Amino acid sequence: MREEWETRSRTKSVKTEWSAISAMPTWNRADSMIASLLRPAFVALLLVTARRQTVSRLVLIDTIAINVLWVVASFGLRISGSVAPNVLGIAFVAAQALTVALFAELQFVGLRRSAAA
In whole angstroms, how far apart are CA 22 and each of 8, 32, 88? Predict the structure, then answer.
């Protein structure tokens, strides 16, 4: 009897979790198009910023914020269940998100040091 109750309660909690995950928005082709169009624009912003002698503090803050949003979106996409990558895909998304997080941290440290100077 106890075993049957445990099985039922486990099944119920799995169903509850699954319905919560399935209610989350899915990654569709339009989202992919938007990301594909925004990425070159961001790279262009980085190239223009890197070539300047002096850069506005606001541009640097925006760049850091975009990088942080990218990291949050990368992990959020994986957690939401919208995509189901294999182990290699999970490793790739995690590696690129951690790399972008490192860039954001280095940019923040540089911004802080330039403000102190």
Answer: 21, 20, 23
CA distances for 32 relative to 15, 26, 28, 36, 79, angstroms: 29, 11, 7, 6, 18
Rounded distance between C-alpha atoms, residue 24 and residue 106, angstroms: 33
Return the C-alpha torsion angle 37, 110, 108, 69, nearest 10.
Answer: 10
The residue with tokens 């690129």 is 96
Q: What's this model's pTM, rounded to 2 decimal places?
A: 0.66
- Report the C-alpha gap between 59 and 107 in whole angstroms: 11
As a whole number of angstroms, the longest Cα–Cα distance in the chain is 75
Which ranges of the chain does DSSP label H, i.e. alpha helix? Answer: 2-22, 29-51, 57-80, 87-116
What does the pLDDT look like over 67-93, one tens digit per residue? Answer: 999 999 999 988 888 888 899 989 999
